[in-house]
Design a protein that fits this description.
2 domains, DNA-binding, 243 residues, 10 strands, elongated, 33% strand, two-stranded antiparallel ribbon, homodimer, Arc Repressor Mutant, subunit A, alpha+beta, Chorismate lyase
DNA sequence: AACAAATGTCTAGTTATCTAGACAGACCGG
DNA sequence: CCGGTCTGTCTAGATAACTAGACATTTGTT
């Protein structure tokens, strides 16, 4: 297993601290996962509990773990850098971040959209859209609540495809839109609507990241209007130069 | 310059030891070079002399430096691995080892060789050879004392070429021998003759590596007979499989 | 309420690391 | 041979790291 060396000029607490930090950073310990108790670690490393505590104290300072009296110490949920560029693809993003994301489809309906959405999609005020509501989980956390609109006339029967492919990119691809780029992205922080707060299991007074985006095909024709509400606590959007 | 950190779990002596070891291994301190005195290092690192001494003690254990009372501490001359194969070329070897070698020509004469040499070169007992005596230095150390014989009939005027090219390989090349291989190599340890000991500035009772070799052209005709006396202390021949 | 299992906080003692100073011994150049 | 400059060795004390044990506090379960 992991070895510790005495009397070579590197203190035990520092060695233990490094080993544990490595476990966290390399993902051997997952976000929110509970570490072995101080006593267990002391036994494993053949060292006093105080020594382990010192190691853990430094990890806490580095914000890698969080200790709760009477409960234990846990891997600190890190703010997730969520890169956004013109070609951001959610599924791809999560895969890059080495996170198992699964998306739950809450609802899909065919309806007349709000005026703002119709305008954004370049539709007349009597044209139908599909509206799809999703909730994404990652590592046991709720990641975002999304509402996406597609022009119904252009993508007949889209919800069924979406349910099968579980991916915007693959769905559009099946309708012949093999490429699309983000026409614009608007990011704001706001308090969640009641429904969103309930869905994301977070207090109504904790702000969320509200991202509204429009994707267009290569000819500039809008294919998707979406609103994604990220948990502001542990998502941090990174705006990137266009590629 | 080089920084040292207190109170982060790594002892000062160990940090200093690492810095100095790095200086030696990366060649910032050369073989045989004197390190700053313990007091100077203590001042530079803002640390007690004893602490520096402890760092140096570990370096001594690792055989990276050697300390001499009253003189100072010096980078330990490492044993030099000297690879030998059928295609060994002295100049090339030194270049591979990243060592500046310069060869001083002590003497070149045209003479009747000893019988053993004549036989080895496949010459009759009345045929002349050129005998060239050289002394090689590298990094300020004397590396070897060589005696090489060339058949004079085949290589008329060779010494002049050798003085110009400073290389056996290039010299033979100018005589049309573009390739040659080592026909055989005999290695032994023996005490140096008086002249050699004096030349190599080493005691007469310290053994040297005595390497006798014959090089032949691709048709098997011997082109060179040589004896090289290496300083046994810091040269270590590595016999390699033929290439 | 009782209990087990965590973390948090003390005290006390040991060992390792670092500092300070003094002095001996070897080397070297004038 | 003498003085300056090295390394080598010793003593003594201060600080950091580690161990041992006791007990408090918090949490979750029974």
């Amino acid at each position: 297993m992991n070895e510790i060396v005495r009397g070579r000029g590197v203190s035990l607490w520092s060695q233990i601290s490094n080993i544990l930090a490595d476990d966290v950073l390399k993902g051997r310990l997952r976000q929110g996962e509970q570490l072995p108790s101080a006593q267990e670690l002391a036994t494993r490393f053949d060292v006093n509990r105080h020594t382990v505590r010192r190691a853990i104290a430094t990890l806490e300072q580095r914000n890698l773990v969080r200790t709760e009296q009477g409960r234990g110490t846990f891997v600190q949920e890190q703010i997730l850098d969520y890169p956004i560029s013109r070609r951001t693809r959610f599924t791809q993003n999560m895969r890059n971040l080495n996170i198992e994301a699964d998306t739950e489809i809450l609802e899909d309906v065919r309806e007349i959209p709000p005026v703002a959405v119709a305008e954004a999609l370049g539709l007349g005020c009597k044209e139908y859209v599909y509206r799809i509501e999703t909730l994404s989980h990652a590592d046991g956390h709720i990641l975002d609540h999304s509402t996406v609109y597609f022009p119904a006339a252009r993508f007949v029967g889209l919800p069924a495809v979406y349910r099968r492919t579980q991916s915007v990119t693959r769905t559009l691809s099946e309708f012949g839109v093999s490429d699309y780029v983000r026409k614009h992205t608007r990011v704001s922080a706001r308090l969640p609507e009641a429904a969103t707060a309930r869905l994301m299991k977070q207090p109504a007074n904790r702000p969320i990241l509200h991202v509204q985006s429009i994707n267009a095909d290569p000819r500039g024709m809008p294919v998707q209007y979406g609103v994604t509400r990220f948990s502001g606590d542990w998502i941090q959007l990174v705006l990137m130069a266009d590629d």
